[in-house]
Amino acid sequence: MGPRLAAPVAGMVMAECAQVGLMIVGKAAMSNGMSNLIFVFYSNAFASLLLLPASLLFHRSERPPLTPSLVFQFFVLGLLGCSAQILGYAGINYSSPTLGSALLNLIPAFTFILAVIFRLERLDWSSASSLAKCAGTMVCIAGAFIVTLYKGPAIVTTSSLSNLQTEVFNLHHKLLTPESNWVLGGLLLVADCVMTSSWLIVQASVLKKYPAELIIVFFYCFFVAIQSAAISFFVEGKTSAWSLKDNMRLMAVLYSAVFGSAFQVGISTWCLRRTGPVFVSMFKPVGIVIAAVAGVLFLGDNFYLGSLVGSVAIVVGFYSVMWGKAKEEKTGLATSVGNVEPNNKKVPLLETIVEEM
Description:
mainly alpha
């Protein structure tokens, strides 16, 4: 791995650790009766308040001018992100968290395909680096499916289930009742994957024109907060649903605002500018490994053979992609997403699409 990739790798690992913590506190808030739409609104609204002064201070000397076209593209980023979250929650509601975890690992594949189509990633079948990236992507996704769908015998076990584990176990069986609409839920989750992959691709294009990560993240959180608030006003009729008097709700929202919307999205955007959307999306399956380790260490979960086999596959696939990226970096074949001016004179198709919106 080259030195140029060391910082993005460390950053994405921290971002995925923050995501695992966000899932834990978010689940606690939802189980306490908080609406997921209102949770999304508060998280992004508080994150916007944090990011506004931070972005102006960090980019005070290198702040590109804002244009109506750029503001509209920020709105599109927010719309894609908000839509992905709504579709994901709806898909899990109609099916199960297990199916949701499995299908969300399609994001690296969709992102890689879209990146190749829009020429954000160069694909040369005669190049060993391109073959390594393709094979590594497939192996990493396969490992994620193994971790999610296959258990096998337990390798590390706990003596007894805690109350929280028992509640989660009972909830899991309730979600697998015949009333669940797995077809509709699966379609919604696939749409969520497409939206998330599109968000990464559009964000990479926006970064070419406006290389100020924190300002982009601020506008993203700002527009997601507005859009989720508008939807919540129609869906949530009770004013009590907006209350943050409960300590669990308040702590979950604050954690989500600082470490979720602000830190995680900010780090991901910084890494995306320097490495590209495929690199960032590859850490979605890696997050499953982090979640499995966190479950064993902090929640007393059992560690199964499927988790071990899948984790090894994810590491092998991830290393293959990193090797391909490092080889391209050495040979100068990698497309730099962060460059405002592309190496070639052809205008990428995605820039034309976004400019026409």
